[in-house]
Specification:
Elements: H1 5-8, E1 18-19, E2 22-23, E3 25-26, H2 37-50, H3 60-80, E4 88-91, H4 94-109, E5 115-119, H5 128-137, E6 140-144, H6 157-160, E7 165-171, H7 183-192, E8 197-200, H8 212-215, E9 219-223, E10 234-238, H9 240-243, E11 256-259, E12 264-266, H10 280-294, H11 298-317, E13 322-325, E14 334-339, H12 344-352, E15 356-357, E16 359-361, H13 366-372, E17 377-381, H14 388-405
Parallel strand pairs: 3-15, 5-6, 5-7, 7-8, 8-9
Antiparallel strand pairs: 1-2, 4-10, 9-10, 11-12, 13-14, 14-17, 16-17
Helix pairs in contact: 2-10, 3-10, 4-5, 11-14, 12-14
Length: 406
């Protein structure tokens, strides 16, 4: 079945609006995706009809809210192919998920002199938590380099792994370049040396069908808002064998079994890691987003997104003076580019005057920009609701930018 993006766009109210006299062209999906009406309606319905705190209430509203919250956990489990719902920890987003692993698994298993492997492609959220941990423990970060095309230099990986390696943490897809990393191969290599692996799936899960058991990753982190769900809700998947041995991340209500002034015993999974009142509405809204995505033909989505990326890549390459940054063989719908000596911020600002929304800057990947010798890029990022006509609008907009600077 062929995807019909023009029909799917009707499910997204925000895409119907005019902006500065032009129809909104939203090409900033790597920053956050737009929300289908089912998610918006679910959030409204929760606050209008179901709002109550969960888990300990004996009244009807609390029980109904609890049931919907836990249904969302099962939806996530099924969506990413986890073995058990207990392996699904709700957090605020990818950043908090990685910090959780750093401060629990990391503090329990990493000591002075040990090493953590990551790559040049990482988002700051998969660098800084490990720096904080390493600096406090006297551990070290080892960095897997990249090629000039923006692909990982995989032949270097075996040289980085040694008896001091305690964790390999890596992004599935580069938010800045769109590179799809061969994480299955990376995980197999790491596991062959007994090294557990965390996958930052923030940029892969909107584009690729994920099965954490097939990947055999030990941790997988992602954000709901990049998956057409609400902001402020994310997921940490962890293998039960790891999660059970990790200490709690935060203390408070819901994560305890019994508290006295002398000691506290902790709740079972997954509640041990969910202290305090969670983002109930956001969690239920994420469940609605997964319902929406499950209604789509994912093979058709992936075929369409590849075609759109190829169309956009060709169209942008035809613009004189434009250079695409990152030419990996395997990419998702992210195109970073520079245009002569025009600052990316100026490109983004001028495109915005025509209702075209892209992202400019270092994309929270300053080490990557340093490796590329660039202060910043302009980035267009696509979702399944984007169209070739929108790509054409982007190209026309870039020609207007060129004309202004000539």
């Amino acid at each position: 079945m062929r995807l019909e993006p023009k029909i799917l766009r009707q499910d997204f109210p925000i895409l119907q609006q005019q902006f500065k006299g032009n129809r909104l062209v939203y090409l900033d999906n790597a920053a956050t995706t737009q929300k289908p009406k089912i998610v918006i309606d679910t959030l409204q319905q929760y606050y209008a009809e179901d709002n109550a705190n969960i888990h300990r209430g004996v009244h009807y509203l609390s029980e109904r809210a609890t049931e919907k919250y836990e249904q969302a956990r099962k939806k996530v489990q099924q969506f990413i192919g986890a073995q058990e719902a207990q392996e699904i920890i709700f957090v605020r987003g990818t950043t908090e998920a990685i910090n959780l692993v750093a401060q629990t698994f990391g503090r329990k298993n990493i000591k002075s002199g040990d090493e953590i492997i990551l790559s040049t492609l990482e988002h700051h959220s998969n660098i800084v938590p490990w720096q904080i941990l390493a600096q406090s423990l006297g551990a070290h970060l080892r960095v897997l380099p990249i090629t000039d095309d923006g692909e990982l230099a995989l032949e270097q990986l075996p040289k980085l792994i040694n008896s001091k390696t305690r964790l390999l943490t890596i992004g599935h897809v580069s938010n800045a370049l769109g590179t799809v990393n061969p994480v299955h191969e990376i995980i197999k290599t790491a596991h062959a040396h007994g090294v557990p692996v965390l996958i930052d799936g923030a940029q892969s899960i909107p584009h690729l069908k994920i099965n954490v058991q097939t990947l055999d990753c030990d941790f997988f982190a992602f954000s709901g808002h990049k998956l057409f769900g609400p902001t402020g809700i994310g997921v940490l998947y962890g293998k039960k064998s790891f999660l059970e041995t990790m200490p709690p991340y935060q203390g408070g209500g819901d994560m305890i079994r019994e508290v006295t002034f002398e000691k506290t015993t902790y709740n079972t999974l997954p509640y041990k890691f969910e202290a305090g009142t969670p983002n109930i509405a956001g969690t239920i809204g994420l469940g609605a987003a997964l319902d929406y995505l499950n209604s789509l033909d994912w093979n058709a989505v992936q075929i369409y997104e590849k075609e759109l990326l190829a169309y956009a890549t060709h169209a942008l390459q035809e613009v004189p003076g434009l250079k695409i940054i990152g030419q990996a063989k395997e990419k998702v719908g992210v195109i970073s580019f520079i245009l002569k000596d025009i600052h990316p911020h100026d490109i983004g600002t001028i495109l915005d005057q025509s209702g075209i929304a892209i992202r400019t800057g270092h994309h929270c990947t300053m080490p990557l920009m340093l490796r590329l010798g660039l202060p910043a890029t302009a980035r267009a990022s696509f979702a399944f609701y984007n169209t070739r006509e929108e790509v054409d609008q982007l190209v026309k907009g870039i020609y207007r930018v060129k004309k202004l600077f000539e």
